[in-house]
Amino acid sequence: MATRALLAVISASPSRCFISSSRIKIQSSVSSLSLNFQQHSRKIHRIARSYSSDTDSSLLQPPDVSRLAETARISLTPAEIEECETKIRRVIDWFGQLQQVDVNSVEPAIRAEMDGGNLREDSPETFENRFALIQFFQYGIVE
Amino acid sequence: MLSTLQPPRSLSLLPLRRFQSSRPIVSAAASSSSTISPPQSQILTTRRSLLSGETTAVEIAKSYLSRIRLTEPQLKCFLHVSENVLKDAEEIDQRIAKGEELGPLAGVLIGVKDNICTEGMPSTAASRILEHYRPPFDATAIKKIKELGGIVVGKTNMDEFGMGSTTEASAFQVTANPWDLTRVPGGSSGGSAAAVAARQCMVSLGSDTGGSVRQPASFCGVVGLKPTYGRVSRFGLMAYASSLDVIGCFGSTVADAGMLLHAISGYDRFDSTSSKQDVPEFQSQFLSVDHFESKPLKGVKVGIIRETLEDGVDSGVKSATQEAASHLEALGCILTEVSLPSFSLGLPAYYVIASSESSSNLSRYDGVRYGNQVMAEELNRLYERSRGEGFGGEVKMRILMGTYALSAGYYDAYYKRAQQVRTLIQKDFKAALEQNDILISPAAPSAAYKIGEKKNDPLAMYAGDIMTVNVNLAGLPAVVLPCGLVEGGPSGLPVGLQMIGAAFDEEKLLRVGHIFEQTLKGSGFVPPLLANVA
């Protein structure tokens, strides 16, 4: 079982459910562990449907790296886009195993359980060294 | 808070009766044969030396700085070494000369991971985007260390923004493992772990989001302590994943890691997630085994997590863990096997949550408020180019993954679902810890691997975190301590045993860990690099 997650990681490959692209390169995962990692787990390739109230019955679209980069305000070169796309699709595919878990009636945990009531009063405090903060606006400018 | 008085006699760690364990540790080659007695607390040894006048803080500091000069070209643990080490040490000596009160960390040399803010000292999170950033404030943990007399030696190397498991993702340099210079020290707190292993500092601070203190502790043969979420203030720790991040401690002994943790623990009004739970006197757990009967851990219930010893774990690691379990049994523990059914789900759930939260946390690095800025004619282009040129490949990838997982239409399928899986994991741990005092597992599925071996395969890299991420999802405390050596490197490679406790029960963890360490045959894990260094 293990390291079911380990086995799932090693054998993950781009899902056939994603829109195929001639740019997707199938990479074999090399691991230092002592297993035979040539067997692919078909479970990784099955993605459950209708698990999101915000989606329709169609499959989730694979990540569009260019669009994601624009959303995240990160510029990528074409080479970076190509490299990222392959890696991200493999990882997102691997995330897909969570869709098979029965989480019916399970409340999401936003963090570990903790004692509450630690919010401060909603009143501003002046930082004692404002000059030190302001000077950073003048540093580190790269043409 | 630790007092400034001499430690009670019962806390003396010397001399100790050597414990004869039932079976030898599995190893290809033993650690330094000259190390017969158990490892000694650097913090207590320093304190005794200073108060007795045997040495001065300046002399101690000079010897460590000399060792840094000798070993840094090979190890590259530090991104920045403080120019104030000797000045700070002189202040300690002056206080001693005047008979003033000394804090419990007086003269203790501490390395600090570079994602923890230190006033006036570079704090870059090993990223180009913060290359010239010097914070105008100290993190709360740093403030506490300084108040207790600790001396910050420098800022240690790490994977950029904590994203990585090898320290190869640093924008500036790759740290080598003191046990084998061709291997990684682990990550993301690899610099902090390696610096303690190489005796470049006595103790160090790291951060642990998914194992970034515990895994490098295992790879470098030192003690790594991850506290309960909320035990230590995160104010001044550059956020990676806010629901998972904690500041953790490295030491060459459990006692050192525990005393450092005590120093930095406690409620902080600047961190709304910090806990108001009392901080016990951890030091009271570090008793000499001379004060116990032959089975000092009699009746302690230990659960071995079944899923951590199945396929996918190196045979040497499994053997070392099983030997460690036998040692615990010989000390009087009651061992049982426990199953955590949701264990294998922790890894994908962790990476969904961590990458999602990081995509939000790292949006502050926009080239405007701090950090490097790339000029552009339009604001969005300024953001894009500053971030594109400032962040490394792994950071960019995780931000993009997180952006995807949080997108409209995908949030429920990924982030919310991962949080539901987190609930399942928390329940499993709670149930197991109701039946057991602590749980144990290997700290990592293998010993340290070669530099470059997993750099281009993210999933192979992520696989190495399988033993540690569930603990972060549950917010529990855990300690990793070296338990044996496996084949590899000039003198074998260390492997670590992970002990996991209930929330805010660091006391029990530290007690068990301390006794385990002090009674382990052949303990005193010293890397071969130090054989030629004074």
UniProtKB/TrEMBL annotation, chain A:
GO terms for cellular component: chloroplast; glutamyl-tRNA(Gln) amidotransferase complex; mitochondrion. Gene3D superfamilies: Glu-tRNAGln amidotransferase C subunit, N-terminal domain. One of its GO terms (biological process) is mitochondrial translation. InterPro entries: Asp/Glu-ADT_sf_sub_c (IPR036113), GatC (IPR003837). It comes from the Eukaryota. This is Glutamyl-tRNA(Gln) amidotransferase subunit C, chloroplastic/mitochondrial. It comes from Capsella rubella.
UniProtKB/TrEMBL annotation, chain B:
The active site is at 113 (charge relay system), 188 (charge relay system), 212 (acyl-ester intermediate). It holds the Pfam family Amidase. Signal peptide: none annotated. It catalyses: L-glutamyl-tRNA(Gln) + L-glutamine + ATP + H2O = L-glutaminyl-tRNA(Gln) + L-glutamate + ADP + phosphate + H(+). Residues 59-510 form the Amidase domain. The keyword Lipid biosynthesis does not apply. GO terms for biological process: glutaminyl-tRNAGln biosynthesis via transamidation; mitochondrial translation. Subunit of the heterotrimeric GatCAB amidotransferase (AdT) complex, composed of A, B and C subunits. Its main location: mitochondrion. Allows the formation of correctly charged Gln-tRNA(Gln) through the transamidation of misacylated Glu-tRNA(Gln) in chloroplasts and mitochondria. The reaction takes place in the presence of glutamine and ATP through an activated gamma-phospho-Glu-tRNA(Gln). It comes from Capsella rubella. It is found in: Mitochondrion; Plastid, Chloroplast stroma. This is Glutamyl-tRNA(Gln) amidotransferase subunit A, chloroplastic/mitochondrial. Its EC number is 6.3.5.7.
